[in-house]
C-alpha cells in the first residue's frame, strides 16, 4: 500500500528527471535519519521514472544509469524497507501508459518553464485523478 509518484516522458535535461532523482535521494536520506517512531508517519512511496533516451544523447543515458543505480541502492536497503522504492520503466510507450496512468497518485511535471510544447501529458494524469 504505497503512493505512486510518477514521471514518465522522454529523458532530457530540460524535463528534469535528474532533479527528480536528487529529490528521491534527499527523501531516502531523510528516511535513513529518522527514528523508528518517526518512520511510522511516513507515507510509503513508489517512485516510477520512465522514458527513452535518444541514441546519441549521452547525458540522457547517464541519467538513466543514475536512476537505476539509485534504485538498486534504495530498493535493497532494509532500513528503508517499503517506505521508498524507485523503479525505472524502460521504453515507455502508450501500452505502458495505459497501465501506469490510471494508478498514479502524483505525477511529476517539473520541466523547465516554457519548454513543453503543449502539456497534454499532465491532462491525461489529471483526468485519471492524479495530482500534478
- How large, in whole angstroms, is the Cα Rg? 15 Å
Continuous helix count:
5
Strand content: 15-25%
Main beta sheet: 4 strands, parallel
What is the N-to-C succession of helices and strands? Answer: EHHEHEHEH
Assign a percent range to the helix content: 40-55%
Form type: globular
For the largest beta sheet, what order do the strands appear in spatially? 3-2-1-4
On the 0 to 100 scale, the average pLDDT is: 90
How many strand segments? 4
Q: Determine the structural class based on helices, strands and strand pairing.
A: alpha/beta
**How many angstroms separate the termini?**
20 Å
Name the poorly predicted regions. none
Description of the molecule:
This protein is an alpha/beta fold. The chain contains five helices and four strands, in the order βααβαβαβα. It has helices at 17-33, 36-39, 58-75, 94-100, 120-127; strands spanning 3-8, 45-51, 84-90, 106-107. β2 (45-51), α3 and β3 form a beta-alpha-beta unit. α1 packs parallel to α3 (58-75). The longest helix has 18 residues, at 58-75. The radius of gyration is 15 Å and the shape is globular. The two termini are 20 Å apart. The mean pLDDT is 90.
Amino acid at each position: 500500500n504505497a503512493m505512486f509518484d510518477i514521471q514518465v516522458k522522454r529523458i532530457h535535461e530540460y524535463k528534469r528527471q535528474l532533479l527528480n532523482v536528487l529529490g528521491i535521494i534527499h527523501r531516502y536520506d531523510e528516511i535513513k535519519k529518522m527514528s523508528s517512531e518517526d518512520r511510522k508517519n511516513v507515507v510509503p512511496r513508489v517512485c516510477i521514472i520512465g522514458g527513452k533516451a535518444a541514441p546519441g544523447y549521452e547525458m540522457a543515458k547517464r541519467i538513466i544509469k543514475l536512476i537505476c543505480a539509485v534504485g538498486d541502492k534504495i530498493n535493497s536497503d532494509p532500513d528503508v524497507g517499503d517506505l521508498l522504492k524507485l523503479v525505472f520503466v524502460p521504453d515507455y510507450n502508450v501500452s505502458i501508459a495505459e497501465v501506469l496512468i490510471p494508478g498514479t497518485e502524483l505525477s511529476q511535471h517539473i520541466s523547465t518553464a516554457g519548454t513543453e510544447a503543449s502539456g497534454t501529458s499532465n491532462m491525461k494524469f489529471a483526468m485519471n485523478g492524479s495530482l500534478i
